[in-house]
Amino acid sequence: MNLADDLIARIAATGPMTVADYMTEALLHPKLGYYTTRDPFGAAGDFTTAPEISQMFGEMLGLCFAQVWRDGGGGSVTIAELGPGRGTLMADMLRAARAVPGFAEAVSVHLVEASPTLRATQAEALKDHDPVWHASADDLPEGPMLLVANEFLDALPIRQFVRAEAGWRERLVTVRDDALAFALGPVVPVPELDHHDVPEGTLVERCPALPHVVSAVAERVVRGGAAIFVDYGHWRSRGDTLQALRDHAPVAPLDAPGTADLTAHVDFEAVARAAPPARASAMITQGVLLERLGITARAQALARTLEGAALEAHVAAHRRLTHPGEMGDLFKAIALVPAGAALPPGFDE
Length: 349
Ligand code: SAH
Prior knowledge:
By secondary structure, the chain is α/β, with parallel strands linked by helices. It contains 14 helices and 17 strands. S-adenosyl-L-homocysteine binds next to α4.
């Protein structure tokens, strides 16, 4: 069976589907979904994420969390990750934070992962840490918690709306000439988008699951600890950012669902809005965060142990993670802490 044919039959029977429903099927269909069926990362896969580019990404975040833990007085804490991919980020964080006395003994590792394929990869990467898996952030233990999510929110399904004079028209997935195609639905009110004062014809995206996920995290963080979200995105959604990647190249989002990664930019204002009763930091760029956490000193120390092609790859990785025009500017970070608590190192108000 092929997922495109399955969706075409379903739309013929029950009508057009939202972009969010399409994304859910394409990414998480139990038999044919993108994440369910493969390990998408790295040179042989479809895309590369920051922790797969260099161990330094996880090391900086691990030391940042260890500092938050010490500032909070130590004690048992859950260290959690949403969408851990290959488990590389968590493994790098735990390895770096081992340098901080007591941390390794204080943490228990919890992972939120939908894909059975990736759970198996994570089990191998984290076999010394006895991780516990959950299907959703709602199932995580109650706080205190140190939580990281890198490129997780961008995989959550979005709905797309185009501004019309009297309201909004939803962009839907339908069937035209026996193929999946976009169409616009009727004009409807969407009160959640009322704060978007945009010209007619502008497309705005909404991620219905995002406030829910952020609230579940905030509820835990208010008991102590911190959460850090890192993702591709901006302060406020504007324009069509639905993107499909196959083999490191962009493809049409409706082309062969289940065989390409689908993401949309994260609306960081929506993260900040969902943060209370936790407190949100300002949004900063990944490059600024990593520089403030000391990535350059770490890069220099690592460089002294390398030569030849390995040294060149290391220098390129540092550049890719931090430089403007590369991930340094395109990716943003935001932190959540208990109301009244200091922000994690690297973040500001
Ligand atoms: N954080 C990793 C992987 C990012 S890819 C890294 O930086 O390398 C997105 C991850 O989120 C994958 O592990 C994917 O399987 C998982 N994922 C996507 N949607 C999910 C959902 N709704 N629930 C749980 N996990 C999800």
